[in-house]
Amino acid sequence: MILQLLLSKQNRFCTVCVVVVLFCLSALSCEKAPPADVTDPGQRLFLGFTKKDVNCSRCHAQDGKGSDDGPDITKVLKKYDEDKIAEIIEEGKGLGEDAMPPFIDKVTEEEVDLLIGFLKTIQEKS
Ligand code: HEC
Question: Which pLDDT score is estimated for 7?
Fold first, then answer.
């Protein structure tokens, strides 16, 4: 009886609609997939594709050149050694509303290394 109802022409159309709507909703709720050309795991982390709580590009922009929320970090490897940069990522930097938050609870040591590896690729030459 229910099956008959579902399979009647009109209802079949509704069933299709429901399936389509559910599919769209599930697609929307999924994390955005990284573009195929972004293969560096450090870059994927930096851009927020690997962990939803880790998105450096949100403040430093995708190319690291900075935004209103974070400074340009394309020269940091001249400014600090890698240990200091790891410390900044883990403990954050600055005070108050404009500070960088600590990521110690969000990234592993290995991921910090991956992030520093990516930072090396975006350093300005001069
Ligand atoms: C909510 C915004 C925000 C996010 C997200 C963020 N940062 Fe920052 N970052 C800042 C701000 C603001 C500063 C400058 C803090 C200061 O010096 O007072 C900063 C500073 C830095 C510095 C030092 C720059 C310098 O010249 O002193 C590095 C390196 C850095 N961030 C890397 C990262 C990395 C890697 C991530 C991702 C794990 C990240 N940041 C995520 C806001 C952010």
Answer: 60
115 Cβ closer than 6 Å to some ligand 1 atom:
yes
Residue owning the nearest CA to atom 29 of ligand 1: 85
Q: Are residues 26 and 45 in the same domain?
A: no
Task: Find the helix packing angle between 82-91 and 109-121, rounded to 10°.
Answer: 120
Question: 93 C-alpha to center of ligand 1: Å?
Answer: 7
Number of domains in the chain: 2
pTM here?
0.81
First to last CA, the chain: 76
Residues 26 and 54 in one domain: no
Q: Supply the range of the domain harboring residue 9.
A: 1-30
